[in-house]
Amino acid sequence: MFCFTIYQKSILFLFILHLNCFSLEGSNSLKLVTGNDYSPYSDEKLKDGGIFSSIVKKILIKLNISYTLDFLPWARGYDMVKNSKYDATFPYVLTKERSLEVNFSKVSLVEIKSYIFTNNKNKINIEDFKGSIYCHSLGYFIEKPIQKILEYNETKKIQKFDQLSCINSIINFESDFTVLNDDQYNQYKKMKIKNFNVINKVDILININNLYIAFRKDINGDIIKKFDEEAKNYIKTDEYNKIRYQN
Which residues cross the membrane (predicted)? Predict the structure, then answer.
């Protein structure tokens, strides 16, 4: 039987702790979380979990990093990354507030252009929507031009659980307009929603946003650096374009 002094036991404990920490950082495995109802970028009902999910998976495979991917309610998943229960979440637009809570990749994997979509063919610019009803999907960022017209008391806002509910709200004339990008519009169009032809695009660009993967604050910085380096190369490939523009 081996007998250890208190000093030897302390050294042994630190050695075991070091091995565990090394195993965690060197395991080449990430716990990822995203959400549903952000078609075509993220939804477990879509092929490979959506466009953005598929791109992230391809990059991690090229880096020989294994992963698990869970689909949870958006706010819950994001909070679990903030609290280091998951390693990363996506896709998110970079904001000042979020940058204080998580570490964003420096490489955007998807660029999106947002427009107003409405059930009124006669409205052709933003000012025309004063006094209308805007449908806002829970968790979505409200673009500055929309915020501006919402400052007018006569412009109202209703909130729905997801963007598809806003689409149906506009079709049923419960609301007048919402903000989508072309990827989303094309995805809903493929769903053959009844009376979808009621919806018209106002051909004025509201904003251009970039979507990123966001990592927990205390993750090894080398992981983000390696991800960014591979992402820079991957977004230039034909494989990326095939996934990104599969619409």
Answer: none
What domain range is 18 assigned to? Answer: 6-108+211-244
Distance CA 52, CA 91 (A): 7
Mean pLDDT of the chain: 89
CA dihedral 188, 189, 190, 191 (to 10 degrees): 50
Structure tokens at 121: 């063919």
pLDDT digits (tens, 9 = 90+) for 104-141: 999 999 999 999 999 999 998 898 999 999 999 987 88
Rounded (10°) CA dihedral 160, 161, 164, 169:
-20
What percent of the residues of the chain are helix, what percent strand, and what percent coil, each to the nearest 5? 40, 25, 35
Residue 151 shares a structural domain with residue 185: yes
54 and 99 belong to one structural domain? yes
What total number of domains does the chain contain? 2
Q: Which of 40, 13, 38, 19 is nearest to 243 (CA)?
A: 40
In this prediction, residue 165 carries a pLDDT of: 95
Q: Tell which wins on pLDDT, 15 or 136.
A: 136
How far, CA to CA in Å, does 177 sit from each of 61, 62, 132, 191, 208?
Answer: 40, 42, 8, 20, 19
Exposed e or buried b for every residue in 45-84, given b needs 16+ CB within 10 A? Answer: ebeebbbbbbbbbbbbeebebeeebebbebeebbebbbee
Contacting residues for 101 by C-beta, under 8 A, at least 6 apart:
82, 217
